């Protein structure tokens, strides 16, 4: 499946009714495209040392870890892998803030 198909066409590999969320694949494609652009901008800001970008990264990764639980019935291994990656991202961003705070306090 090509990446643009999630936005241009609304077909999915697995269709299940009566689950926690109902959202078209085209809608999910747009949400992921917009969030991807925001995350790339925040990632560049994290590399330049912006504190707001760290907070945004922690918030987005935390929400993503929670949202990945919605995919467990469909793709259990992949969903749990994404939860683990998001938890690692939160940990890494928080450790970076902790180290920066320690460096500022001892300076």
Percentage of residues in DSSP E strands? under 5%
Main sheet attributes: strand count, strand direction, barrel closure: none
- Quaternary state of this entry equals single chain
Helices and strands, in order, run as HHHH
**SSE-based structural type:** mainly alpha
Termini gap: 53 Å
Total helices: the number is 4
Poorly predicted runs of 5 or more residues: none
- Could you estimate the helical fraction of the residues in percent? over 70%
Total count of strands: 0
Radius of gyration: 17 Å
What is the mean pLDDT? 80
**How would the global form be characterised?**
flat
Describe the structure.
This protein has helices spanning 5-8, 25-47, 51-68, 76-105. With 107 residues, the chain is mainly α. The longest helix is centred in the C-terminal third of the chain and has 30 residues, at 76-105. The termini are far apart. The mean pLDDT is 80.
Task: Summarize the SSE layout with pairings.
Elements lengths: L4 H4 L16 H23 L3 H18 L7 H30 L2
Helix pairs in contact: 2-3, 3-4
Q: Which features does this protein show?
A:
mainly alpha; 4 helices
Summarize, please.
The chain has 107 residues and is an all-alpha fold. The chain has 4 helices and no strands. The protein is flat and about 55 Å long.
């Amino acid at each position: 499946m090509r990446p643009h198909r999630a936005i241009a066409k609304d077909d999915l590999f697995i269709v299940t009714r009566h689950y926690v969320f109902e959202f078209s694949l085209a809608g999910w494609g747009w949400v992921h495209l917009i969030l991807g652009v925001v995350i790339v901008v925040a990632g560049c800001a994290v590399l330049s040392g912006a504190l707001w970008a760290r907070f945004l990264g922690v918030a987005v990764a935390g929400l993503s870890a929670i949202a990945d639980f919605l995919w467990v019935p469909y793709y259990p291994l992949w969903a749990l892998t994404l939860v683990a990656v998001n938890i690692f991202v939160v940990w890494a961003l928080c450790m970076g803030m902790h180290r920066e705070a320690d460096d500022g306090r001892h300076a």
